[in-house]
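Structure, all two chains, one model.
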Amino acid sequence: MKELKHWEDFEVGQVVSYGPYEVTKDEIIDFARQFDPQPFHLSEKFAKSSLLGGLSASGWHSCAIWMRMFVEGWASKCMSLGAPGVESVRWLKPVMVGDVLRGRSEILEHRTSKSRPWVGLSVMRHECLNQNDEIVMTLLSTQMTRVRGARDE
Amino acid sequence: MSDFHFENIMIGERHELGKEVLTTAAIKKFAARYDPQYFHLDEKAASDSLFGALCASGWHVCALWMSKLVPYRAEAIFTAPNPMEALAAQGPSPGVENIRWFKPAFAGDTLNFYSTIIAKEDWHKPDWGLVKTQAEIINQHGETICSFIGKGLIRKLPNEE
């Protein structure tokens, strides 16, 4: 088994890519039923007659799908300590049935926590793209990763 | 009659959207599909993590807020004096800002969901305005575990010409 990466193994400017993820009709409807039951996410018939011309995923569903890809591409490969938040999420284009999404994340800032030196902080800009290379969503977050040399307090 | 148009949206009103008891099964179901990290999936491993116990994905908490907002808003729209007009005033959301996960949401927690309209801004399309809402998720101990700023486009009143 490959050793998990620590904060020291990353640097500013580094880009991580992940995906693909195909978004199906059933999954869009299933998520919408549980979390965002609006007609344009639930009813194909309604959505066909709407401006978008088809069923689109909830914005929160796009976030969840991005997270799945990001866990596979980043968080599961390093000593991830999660994220305290997300500074911004932009839903730039609708995610439609049949879209194949992928993502990439770039490290913009890279430092250690002053109060907890064993926590490394990476400010990352994430992009989620569809099969036509259109950016459907961007996120800006601060990811926390364990620092190799430092001890827990 | 035109309460739902941008001009008539009131800043400062806090809406209580509802509550939800988080179950272990719901936490694991969401995490298995969308956020498969051990502190959301495995009780034993989670108890040794910095969270101290199995806790929900932050995105799960946000999605639950949405699941309370949608029926709350639907009721307001469909009981308005002119529901079709109220519905037509609702636009899409361009995104959210400043999501903060202050504390974990554990299995068994009762989460309370709130929404407060905090700002109204012009949008680059003149027929629409941007409304910002402060979302708050508060647990049974009165602790705010998550907050963010939601954004929604709302139609402006038609020009009387």
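Chain B touches chain A through 28 residues (CB under 8 Å).
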